[in-house]
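Supplementary Note 3. Input sequence used for the single-chain structure prediction.
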Amino acid sequence: MILLLHGLPSSSRMFQSLLARLGDQYHLIAPDYPGYGHSDWPDPRQFSYTFDAIANVMNGLTVALRLSHYTLYMQDYGGPVGFRMALAHPERVQALIVQDAVAHNEGLGANWATRRAFWADRPAGETALRSDLLSLAATKRRHVGDDPTVELYDPDLWMDEYAFLNSPGQAQIQSDLFYDYRTNVEAYPTWQAWMQKTHPKLLVLWGRHDLSFDPGEPERYRRDVPSAEVHVLDAGHFALDTKADEIATLVRGFMKGQK
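The predicted structure, written as discrete structure tokens, is reproduced below.
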């Protein structure tokens, strides 16, 4: 069983290509977080948009569905959600699949300066943060990165997400959650220590054209878990955009090794 945890600003929709390729052999569950996709979008005054809160909702989902064991597939925001779930209930986690999700401060890279300024002073940095995070240019850049083969990407990928980000209430929801991202940075040493101690079965998939994070991050996972299987693909931040076949093959091979 694979529990697929999506990133920003996507939803379970980002996993459609993987569901089509792996659904014949594995039980796959791809939920939308609160405030994303087809889940409810509660008002921030009624629901606290934090990674702790989202992880609690996802843990509640596993209880409701009676999922006692699963592999976590974590992309982008799925990393901080998934690591919280793993540390809260390590007995449930059979393996980890990390796709362009960070667990080391160095992995955030130099382009996070605007975002760190927002964490340091939210009122002063919120306008710049929203421009950096929610604009059409940023939404496209998250997908394409520095990939020269732009023609391989469906423009609906970023146009649909941009429309989602401009829906009523989304700017506040995304700002609140991104402000809480600083708690992930504080938790990185704990996640690293857990990996170094437990050596979970780990598959790391990374897009070499990803401009959201530092390209050295995959090897940092291998430093924590020397047995990790690491693959850097000719893809962007959302590697499934263009490399779904390759990723499906790698996941099949990794999952067979868990039996």
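Residues 182-198 form the longest helix (17 residues). DSSP finds eleven helices and six strands in the chain.
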